[in-house]
Amino acid sequence: MLKNAFRFGAICLLFLFSSKAATAVSLPKIFGSHMVLQQNAEVTMWGWGNPGEEITVTGSWNQEAVKTKASNLAQWQVKLKTPAAGGPFSVTVKGQNTINLEDVLVGEVWLCSGQSNMEWTTKAGIDNGAAEIPKANFPSIRFFTVPRRSADGVQLDVDGEWVVCSPETMPNFSAVGYFFGRQIYLNLKMPVGLINSSWGGTPAEVWVNPQAISKTENLAQAAAKLQEVPWGPVRPGKTYNAMIAPLIPYQIAGALWYQGEANVSDPGNYAQLLPALIQNWRQEWNKDFPFYFVQLAPYKYGRPHEGAMLREAQRRTLTTPNTGMIVITDIGNKDDIHPRNKIDVGLRLANLALAKTYGKKELTYSGPLYKSMKVEGDKIRIQFDHAESGLVAKDGKALTHFEIAGSDNRFVPATAKISGKTVVVQAKEIKNPAAVRFAWDNIAEPNLFNKAGLPASTFNTLENFADSN
């Protein structure tokens, strides 16, 4: 009997290995039925197979068979040329076995990342969320959620699957991501794929390839000071390895970023860190895709001005090419680090993308952004970008949250008046003004807007904004 049991076990093992060999071709989870591929692009598909195994990948949009062979590392990769937006299509991957991916759409694919405000779902609770759920019937919008994972080294795959947007799936996806995608879809009338890879409470360092941190002394020193926390990783690269790297080089149109709360204690470092993250992702994808981010909302952070300084670090990141920022000082909640108005955040990000990426020039996508200053006697005149339609005090009262300083960089409250498309700032005690700052408070909710109804960003005219009192 023991001999028969051994023989049965051997047969089972033989069947297991032969079965595995017969079904050698496989794909990472990011490729699946219901996925969205980037339109009008040369998209990369990759996977695994037996070394030397001939693999053929065919998209039904042109029936062009692309062939390759798995390497000695059991890996393969092909490039497919996608058509203009449309579908549904199918993709067939054939080797010793065949994989059929059905209901594949071709359109615009966006990566959504950051911490809890990007991760926050409609189900978790947002303003007007209950009314929006039944209306979320958009079969041409697709979701892929990357689960929270960390790793010491680069991972090859993630768990997850593509799902069709519906009242059943929408409540569990990033609310900001959904409302962004819905607006893109409604304006462009083409499929939209949304990949959410975010983790609440994580500093930006964990989302960067650790090599990009270690080769920059300032970033490495700052990262070494991060203290472990119970709710997530803090060491460089931990979520990059597990939640970003496995997605590369899945072709994307661009990235959305809503993060910063976990970096308010070192805003000076963030002014270098965020551009480094953007550059790192673009290098890894080998594409200078648009990177659009959300400026922090007002909140009662622990130390004076640290939230304002982080907002200023974010504003200065706009010098990085092909970036954009939305300001949400008017739709935040200074008592809640998770403002529940996620709809307007998504819509503002969408208008930013529609204007800058998709050429909808008629859209005003930004509030006033500091451009330059000019000393005029005992006053300073501030010029703004995105003030073409004019400036207003939204509540009709005197402008708030302006401060002015002399050469000693000691700021005092100032009066500010709109003059055409500029603002003139002064204070009686400052006879020789040298600098201006605006909304320099963690919970500032200033009333300077452009006539399109969008709020002005925090700014500080000092080159080293951390030097001000």
From TrEMBL:
Q: Which keywords describe this protein according to UniProt?
A: Hydrolase, Signal
Name the Pfam families on file.
SASA (PF03629)
The protein's matches in SUPFAM superfamilies, at most eight in alphabetical order, are given as: SGNH hydrolase (SSF52266)
Keyword Signal in record:
yes
Q: Which InterPro entries match?
A: SASA, SGNH_hydro_sf, SIAE
Please, which domain of life does this record's source organism belong to? Bacteria
Q: How far does the signal peptide extend, from start to end residue? A: 1-24
The answer on whether this UniProt entry bears the keyword Iron-sulfur reads no
Biological process terms from the Gene Ontology for this record are: carbohydrate metabolic process
* GO terms assigned for molecular function: sialate O-acetylesterase activity
The Sialate O-acetylesterase domain sits at 108-352
| PANTHER family xref list | SIALATE O-ACETYLESTERASE
- Identification of the protein by name: Sialate O-acetylesterase
- Species name for this entry? Adhaeribacter swui
